[in-house]
Write a structure and sequence with these properties.
The structure is a homodimer.
Chain A: H1 9-17, H2 24-32, H3 39-47, H4 58-68, H5 100-121, H6 132-137, H7 145-151, E1 159-163, H8 166-181, H9 185-188, E2 196-201, H10 207-214, E3 222-225, H11 235-247, E4 251-258, H12 270-280, E5 283-288, E6 312-315, E7 328-332, H13 337-342, H14 374-408, E8 414-416, E9 426-431, H15 434-437, H16 442-449, H17 452-463, E10 469-473, E11 476-483, H18 491-505
Parallel strand pairs in A: 2-3, 2-4, 4-5, 5-6
Antiparallel strand pairs in A: 1-7, 6-7, 8-9, 9-11, 10-11
Chain lengths: 508, 508
């Protein structure tokens, strides 16, 4: 690998001699000294060492301030390089502007901790604390008070489980709803049960149908309810179809309302759905895989008003909250139901004569045996960011999408797929190249417009500049669906996106 | 944190001045220089710097040799710290004896790469290559020739999927088997299907019953077949129960043989099971979650003879092969069946006008939507260790368990739960404290013996010295089940375990 002399004594001296930006070289050296390879030169460029007139950011200043605490005057080889990071917050790290140094310093601390763990765990004089599988099995949800508060269930009610994803969480909901109404299904199967009917909007996620197929209910028993122009389930149609199903001898057992549909980002009217479910005694599920995280935002949580009346809620922290895949929870209002539904009490796993509080053995309420500890990443992020940190992150994404919407709604060559401000960060639009923009023949216009988004997307992939999803929906031809879930995006990125679509699509 | 002056110039000079073990200080410095915190002092102690008469291991020598390549005479601040690690093998890393330095050096390289990635990905001039979710969706299994070879399916046949764990893989198998026999179940549900019957041994994993409950088949339809004294399914009983079920009007559709039962580690006789399945036209599944990895061992793969006749196989690389949770595959012999069984062709995900080879879009054969990329860890480990590396690791675990078995089978105070050498690494035994050892009253002996394993386990947890599972099985009271899946364990660890059980259980 090419070296710019970054690691050389000359480089070190150059840094040490630079007094124009007095702290930067030292801090830079603190972090960058730990790198091998030509990463050094990249960091060098990134951190602009030598550009003395660059002003250090707040985060950089904190790292620098920490390094100032050492009592050694040498810039790089000081004896106390243990930075005190207690003054650094997650908001100081990337994507914070100029958060590079803080991030690198922080990550190196993490690495040190992990390596220390490895060293310790290979030391046979240390204690065995937890066996991996035992800890994994105990990784069910034990709700914090905060979780309850967030959904709005009363008196600390509630139960739940982390599952491998939203589709499985929705399937669990359907499974528990069926068990609640017909507990004998567990032993006797569907032959002991009348023909069931489940209801969800035509814009809902396909996992509702997949779940019905898997559970032996059948996709024909999932009745799709009409959505209005903005993608919300229509309560009148829901009630009409429930009555109709009953007349046909089916037993309605499950309504899945969607909080944040996949394509439009629409929120079904939860109070109206809850009223109907209550009237007809049907389990109300809310698929909040995508939109559930808006509960963290005081500004946007009204979009989920009524969620507190649901029997179960799917919520995927791995979407809007940026928890690394996989982190999906199914929350169930009635405690103990999941346990009764799924437990088999295999005696080789769930011994009753264990040495500790058996309420930590939550494994038997899952379909799985050993499980990935998906709650841990969320817990850690929550500790680091706090509820307000998540809120700020979510509000930022919504602000960015509103910015995009406002920029394109009246812009020439752009056409919105549905009227009004999007409720979530999904901004759905067509781009009409000049050659299509003024076509009179509506059918010809549709036909050609359908090919525009795939063609632009292909060019995006070739150019590697940006990536935006597209799809048709119902009778609407292919349109772009820009979804923002990365709070590191900026207004400039949105401006760039609009210009880039113009650039790539001009000649189509 | 306390510092031993490890980072001081004095420390550096001390290392540089030590010529007794000429290379060690330099190499030690290379790796340890990167650490902050008091990890330094631990490493210092661990690596025994200053004990000049210590002989460097082969792995350490390789790291040292790499560092010798620099053209700088200074021990620590050389300009070319880019170690050439191409000569290091995974077997040089921990748990290799004295693999500490190699491991640390290697891990630091990994960290450098990751940090370089972060730096690059925040550089807006770089290309967008893959969107996370797109890559995740494409993470189905596209088998390498090697996979096929391993199961033994002909002509490169086969299909599969990575799922969140063995229980879900087994559920997928049952789902696909049902669809194969009654494809209408997908739309019409179980009401369109006669009453089904599934068969598995009484020693099989509880996930077979959980799957039947979830899929609407019902646990009563899972018929448990007798196992012999060593835990293997009895083919005579299997056939008898299939005939009996048919006489009752049930439709047998699924037999799950177990390759490596959870408690005894027994392997069902696959050829005999396959003969019966063929005769009665029933789907043959092999739950090889635990034992499937023995296919990697030329010495032990005979235990799975007949697996090539199965219609589906569950295999969990996250167990015996030490791939980090989660990594579980369901392999299905008939191609396209999973796709037909599970696909819903949601148009917003599985567009047909995409810019690339659509055969990479394997997501629709899963129940899930977004998924964790579980195959990647396995692929990476396979690349690093090779088939022979995995084989060596597995053979080592079996060797350790055989060592344990040989040590305790005739030892006073120990009693084996079943006769003969265990087929897998499960060694099942009772420990009888002296006070119980000679009891004449059989019932009193049983009663007291039942409490011994939990009591010793509690002491193990308190002492933190070791952890061994225990459970009852059928009419057998609580016994220890020592399962070895960590190739870093040593014969000395086994000796220690036996002595520790003696020590902790003496007075019970």
């Amino acid at each position: 690998m090419a070296s710019t002399g970054f690691w050389s004594r000359e480089g070190e001296n150059a840094a040490g001699d630079s007094n124009q930006s007095p702290s930067t070289p030292r801090a830079w050296c603190l972090a960058a000294q730990k790198f091998t390879g030509d990463l050094g030169s990249k960091l060098y460029a990134l951190l602009n060492v030598g550009e003395g007139n660059k002003t250090a950011s707040s985060a950089t200043k904190k790292v620098l301030a920490a390094s100032e605490n050492c009592d050694c005057n040498k810039p790089c080889n000081c004896s106390k390089r243990n930075l005190d990071l207690s003054n650094l917050y997650s908001t100081d790290l990337l994507p914070a502007s100029d958060g590079d140094l803080a991030t690198i310093t922080f990550l190196q601390e993490v690495v040190d901790l992990m390596l220390a763990y490895i060293v310790t765990s290979f030391d046979r004089s240390t204690k065995v604390h937890i066996r991996g599988r035992a800890s994994v099995r105990a990784a069910g949800v034990r709700h914090s008070e905060e979780d309850e508060e967030i959904i709005g269930w009363q008196d600390g009610q509630g139960d739940g489980i982390f599952s491998p994803g939203g589709a499985i969480s929705n399937m669990y909901a359907m499974l528990v709803a069926r068990f609640k109404m017909f507990p004998e299904v567990k032993e006797k199967g569907m032959s002991s049960v009348p023909r069931l009917a489940a209801f969800t909007s035509e814009h809902s996620h396909f996992s509702i149908k997949k779940g019905a197929a898997a559970l032996g209910i059948g996709t024909d028993s999932v009745i799709c309810i009409k959505a209005d122009e903005s993608g919300k389930m229509m309560p009148l149609d829901l009630e009409r179809r429930i009555v109709e199903a009953k007349q046909k001898g089916l037993v309605p057992f499950f309504v899945s309302a969607t909080a944040g549909t996949t394509v439009y980002g629409a929120f079904d009217p939860l109070h109206a759905v809850a009223d109907i479910c209550k009237k007809h005694n049907i389990w109300m599920h809310v698929d909040g895989a995508w939109g559930g995280s808006l509960l963290m935002s005081r500004k946007h949580r009204w979009k989920l008003d009524g969620v507190e009346r649901a029997n179960s809620v799917t919520w995927n922290p791995h979407k809007m909250m940026s928890v690394p895949l996989q982190s999906s929870a199914l929350l169930v209002r009635e405690e103990g139901l999941m346990q009764n539904c799924n437990q088999l009490q295999a005696c080789y796993l769930f011994q009753q004569d264990k040495h500790y509080d058996l309420s930590y053995d939550t494994g038997d309420k899952a379909l799985q045996c050993g499980r990935h500890v998906d709650i841990f990443k969320l817990w850690l992020m929550w500790r680091a960011k706090g509820t307000f940190g998540f809120e700020a992150q979510i509000d930022k994404c919504l602000e960015l999408s509103e910015y995009l919407y406002n920029k394109i709604k009246d812009r020439e060559g752009y056409e919105m797929v549905f009227d009004g401000k999007p409720q979530h960060t999904n901004v759905c639009f067509w781009y009409l190249p000049p050659g299509i923009r003024y076509l009179e023949d509506k059918e010809e216009r549709r036909r050609r417009l359908h090919k525009v988004a795939p063609a632009i997307k292909a060019r995006m992939m070739e150019n590697g500049t940006t990536m935006v999803s597209y799809q048709p929906q119902g009778d609407k031809v292919n349109f772009f669906r820009m979804v923002i879930s990365n709070p590191a995006a900026t207004f400039e990125d949105i401006d760039f996106l609009i210009e880039e679509i113009d650039r790539l699509g001009q000649d189509l």
